[in-house]
Amino acid sequence: DTVHQPIRIIVDTKASISLDSQIVKTAKDYRTILAISCRDTRTCDFNDKLEMLKSFKVEILCCEEKDGHVDINDLMMRLGEMGIDSLLLEGGATINAAFLEANCVDEVYAFVAPKIIGGTNSKSPVAGKGIDLMKDAIMLTDIKTEQFDNDILIKGKIKSLDN
């Protein structure tokens, strides 16, 4: 049996990733795609950086832009054209919100640590516009929980509007 390594896809609108990062340094060993927002890489403001990334074997995927970021629906369409039909999203609040707002999430695996951080400006796992009313919250179904050391994993499927 051949073990297939996952393809690493970095969503980085203006290619701000450091050339010294481990993900760039190991791109020759693990297929790595950098999704950017630029119609034509030859005319991008950061074309020199893209050429350097390509020299590390990073593949560049040009996507449409939406609200100053990579358009997630366009990204998903382009990945589908490449035969990539399933993603494991590991990201921060902004990318998490973008995928949820684009309705590109089927299932959520959320880890909760027994630590209280608090603070008016504390970070959230999901950024974006948020909701005004609890009735408009994204709901999960088929919820399962597991404990890993002190952390709790909550797994659930996104409830579709027709459920």
Low-confidence spans: pLDDT under 50, at least 5 residues?
none
Distance between the termini: 39 Å
Structural class: alpha/beta
Mean pLDDT: 90
Topology:
Layout: E1 8-11, H1 22-25, E2 32-37, H2 47-55, E3 58-63, E4 65-66, E5 69-70, H3 72-81, H4 93-101, E6 107-112, E7 140-148, E8 151-158
Parallel strand pairs: 1-2, 2-3
Antiparallel strand pairs: 4-5, 6-8, 7-8
Description:
The protein has 163 residues and is of the alpha/beta class. It is 20% helix and 26% strand. The protein is built from 4 helices and 8 strands, in the order βαβαβββααβββ. The chain has a 3-stranded parallel β-sheet, sandwiched between helices. The protein has a 3-stranded antiparallel β-sheet with strand order 6-8-7, with no helix packed on it. The longest helix is centred in the middle third of the chain and has 10 residues. The mean pLDDT is 90.
Based on the model shown, name its key terms.
163 residues, alpha/beta, 3-stranded parallel β-sheet, 3-stranded antiparallel β-sheet, globular
At a glance:
By secondary structure, this protein is α/β, with parallel strands linked by helices. Helices cover 20% and strands 26% of the residues.
